[in-house]
Amino acid sequence: MAAELERPAAQASCSTNPLIRKLDKFISLGPQDQLTLDHLCRHRRSIEANATLMHENARLSVVFVVLMGVAYRYRLLADGRRQILGYLMAGDMCDADFIISDRCDHSVGVLTDAVVAVIPIPELKSAIARCPRIGDGLVLASQSEEAVLRRWLLNVGQRHALQRIAHFLCEMSAQLHTAQCLPAGSLSMPLTQHELADTMGLTVVHVNRCLQRLRDEGLIAYGRKRVTIVDRDRLLQIEGPAARATVEPAVQRADELNVAGVSA
Amino acid sequence: MAAELERPAAQASCSTNPLIRKLDKFISLGPQDQLTLDHLCRHRRSIEANATLMHENARLSVVFVVLMGVAYRYRLLADGRRQILGYLMAGDMCDADFIISDRCDHSVGVLTDAVVAVIPIPELKSAIARCPRIGDGLVLASQSEEAVLRRWLLNVGQRHALQRIAHFLCEMSAQLHTAQCLPAGSLSMPLTQHELADTMGLTVVHVNRCLQRLRDEGLIAYGRKRVTIVDRDRLLQIEGPAARATVEPAVQRADELNVAGVSA
DNA sequence: CGAACTTTTGATATCACTCAAGGGACGTGG
DNA sequence: CCACGTCCCTTGAGTGATATCAAAAGTTCG
């Protein structure tokens, strides 16, 4: 399911270690910190698309850091329903709560082919002990993830399907664009409508109809396993189902006009 | 809105500082740590029910720790919808992400009259520097909160109203019973149906009807501003709307039997 | 070219929301 | 102590948003 391969020097897109780039957004790392992080990431493993990287309740002695590709956290219900709990991009650590227990409360899968660094937990702990800023950075990263979870909960709990999808796409665009060194604005994400549905607490069918509407209004584009933002600003202004009122009544009015024209 | 009062020695219910009790669940604190924590909590403020303790986007130079009463995190949408993001009991810290920025991404209100400790952030930081275990404890507490957020997201995203409420109540019962030194099993919570609704992403009306059903089946009891769990085990086994199938079809079958009886 | 997956579409069912109003508990002030 | 307002809970009718079911069309891949 996952081929092992050692690539001591191979580097991801941007010429720096993604983990370093990620932590550097939260705290300034010294040269020693960076060396340590690079050294931590020396064991690599490539994972094929759709594989499971980590199972809920599994006991792990290592943590993973995504170096390439996109992974996602999720939990399953007894009847098979799945809630996706977050996406992991380059630099994100799979098991942020490795400290609190060696068990994990959720699973992690990968969307695309991915490469992860495999870090033994004891080694990570000793690195933190030697370089406190690394620990600080990880804590900050974990707290920023907590903030994302709060935004998602707000989104799923309070917004209607259309707004919900719109907001989610914008948020992901932001996350992708800071994770990689990419331009903002229009951005694309390797997402199946099924995954979108499980992220938003909606049905595939309903997600599909919403996406069509967003596409018809020129706000997004999408195709096989990929959603692209076309007009981020207008996407954020999407109103809920009330927006339907701007479409349907128009048809009725046309009929009325017809009648009026005939009678005139 | 909030009267200031200094109570240098007054202690909460259990003879110990709630913050110490809380952190002690995650990490073992030395005598020095405990002294430091006690000292940190020396400034107290009492808040009246329904007051707002902290506003979204406010810039704060202090953090609050709930000593008595229940507070809750929430966010508002432009149109007034509110999502409750978590409940804070004795020992919980209001602004867990005080490190990441001095701004907060959500507001905090109190349900009941409450007493909080007010800790200046610089003082907290220096305490952490002196007693690293305090910092560790806070990090662990924050990660346990992240786990709660994931459970909530699963709940709101995937479960139907009835299951959703049932699971939430059980989870709160667990949280309350570890926060205070209370017996498990049946427990009660000072919650308005309005707050329940905003927690679960449902409407007050719909929450009301669900609660009635749960009460009629003898799983919970409730009254003015209070929900009580009667039968925790059965509550956790609640099925979704499919449970209706155990009631309605019975009526139809009765009719069929009637017809059969007539024709026989 | 078939198998598996993703996206579409239509018809129908139903969960949950909206609107509207009434009743009960509690607090307050006369 | 009663009258009143407010907040919380309750109820009903009607609507709407989303789910469910079923099936077809387009893609990718072997």
Structural class by helix and strand composition of chain A: alpha+beta
Mean pLDDT figure of chain A: 84
Low-confidence runs of at least 5 consecutive residues of chain A: 1-15, 244-264
Work out the strand percent of chain A. 15-25%
Compact description:
Chain A is an alpha+beta fold and 264 residues long. Chain A contains nine helices and ten strands.
What do these coordinates show?
The structure is a homodimer of 264-residue chains. In chain A, α4 runs antiparallel to α5 and α6 crosses α7 (204-216). Chain A contains 9 helices and 10 strands. Chain A is an alpha+beta fold and 264 residues long. In chain A, the strands form 3 sheets. In chain A, strands 2-6-4-5 form a 4-stranded antiparallel beta sheet. The first copy, chain A, has helices at residues 18-24, 31-40, 121-130, 132-158, 161-179, 193-200, 204-216, 232-236, 248-263; strands spanning 44-47, 52-54, 62-68, 71-76, 82-88, 107-110, 114-120, 188-189, 220-223, 226-229. At the A-B interface, β5 and α4 of A face β5 and α4 of B.
